[in-house]
Write a structure and sequence with these properties.
Oligomer: single chain
Distance between the termini: 114 Å
Strand order of the largest sheet: 8-7-9-12-13
Number of helices: 12
Shape: elongated
Number of strands: 13
CATH class of the largest domain: Alpha Beta
CATH architecture of the largest domain: 3-Layer(aba) Sandwich
């Protein structure tokens, strides 16, 4: 009759004493002993169980580490709101658009800023609802631009576009079409697909260096990297470091070619010949042709103005901004001005610390400059 007991593997009389205490050497067996095949099977089972234990231990350690790092980086990275702000647009040239009806607290993207409340109207604007068609007797000024026009880091009523309502007075009403991360091509296309429905009398464009970058492609948006970036501060930090950790805060929403264009120059095609944005020779052929796209967009804007009967004013960061663009605007008789005088003084007085977007005071000054230029250049009549 067989009885079970705990026995030691003893087929090799010369085993070392240390082997005696290895868990794999202990098992339940019959008193009459096992065959070599049985012993090999038991050893394999023990080895497999040990491997599974090691894999589980390593996996658990990695998971705990990642959770710990995520908690740490959530204290230093802003809460993401890109998936709340953007949705894919049916228009492929636009790529993405603001989510109608969205409402959330905005704290920046890569640089934490004081939270502001963002509300997107049912018309897809960071603005109040506007009547369509335009009421008789009302005149409308449409603001085109990216994050500054949108009102990045300030409340809706503090943005320069909203402030122009009171500065211009009746019968003027402003409509804000600004979208963070848009370039000139997207802005003009947004005017075509959305803005013309508001029957603008004047279109004010706030142009800046980001307009040379490729289209905002946040609907690369359906990728697993984007999904993780939306939900994990650690992933956003890694992407920020891979991109150099600098640039405008909304740069992470552009695809990587934008950074190539920014560092290798933008190729200029068309009436001015192939030149580099910095004045040199041809840029990398794979880089985004930002300069050419900007000139193409403003040419289209001028044509739309003639077709639909609205005037255009362009505000630029500097007096010496892009000579090719200035020549195009001069040729099309589109007035332009620099916003630099509005932002003179201590940076902390007019800009959000580290982020470098205008703060509420900066927007107040930009609005005052825009109202003055609109009247001085005869775009609108003085009161």
């Amino acid at each position: 009759m067989k009885r079970s007991t705990l026995s030691i593997r003893d087929e090799n009389p010369g085993y070392w004493l240390g082997d005696l205490f290895r868990p794999a050497n202990f098992r339940y067996s019959s008193i009459v002993g096992d065959s070599p095949e049985q012993r090999r099977g038991a050893s394999t089972e023990a080895g497999t169980g040990s491997l599974r234990w090691r894999v589980a231990l390593v996996s658990g350690s990695v998971a705990v580490t990642l959770v710990g790092l995520e908690l740490v980086f959530r204290t230093i990275m802003p809460t993401t709101t890109h998936h709340l702000m953007y949705q894919e647009s049916p228009d492929t040239e636009i790529g993405v658009e603001l989510v109608p009806g969205a409402e959330f607290a905005f704290e920046g993207v890569t640089i934490p800023i004081p939270p502001t409340q963002v509300q997107i109207s049912n018309q897809g604007l960071r603005d109040v609802e506007h009547m369509i068609p335009k009421p008789e007797g009302e005149q409308r000024l449409v603001c085109l631009g990216d994050s500054t026009t949108f009102g990045w880091g300030v409340e809706m009523e503090e943005g320069f576009c909203a402030r122009l309502n009171s500065l211009l007075g009746a019968p003027w009403t402003t409509v804000n079409l600004g979208v963070p991360g848009y370039n000139s091509s997207q802005e003009v296309r947004r005017l075509e697909t959305v803005g013309l429905a508001f029957s603008p009398d004047v279109v004010l464009v706030l142009f800046d260096g980001n307009d040379y970058q490729p289209p905002l492609d946040y609907g690369g948006a359906n990728s697993w990297v984007t999904w993780l970036s939306d939900r994990m501060a650690l992933v956003r930090w890694i992407r920020k470091r891979l991109r150099g950790g600098g640039g405008a805060p909304e740069d992470m929403a552009h695809h990587d070619a934008g950074h190539a264009a920014a560092h290798t120059g933008q190729e200029t095609d068309g009436p001015y010949g192939p030149t580099d944005a910095g004045g040199g020779g041809l840029s990398d052929g794979n880089a985004w042709k930002g300069k050419a796209k900007v000139l193409e967009a403003f040419t289209r804007l001028a044509d739309l103005g003639q077709q639909y009967g609205f005037q255009v004013l362009v505000l630029m960061p500097n007096d010496d901004e892009d000579q090719d663009l200035r020549r195009l605007l001069d040729r099309r008789r589109i007035p332009y001005a620099s916003i630099r005088p509005a932002l003179w003084g201590k940076p902390e007085d007019v800009l959000i610390p580290e982020d470098q977007h205008p703060n509420a005071e900066g927007h107040r000054r930009i609005a005052a400059l825009a109202a003055r230029v609109l009247r001085e250049r005869g775009v609108i009549s003085a009161p």
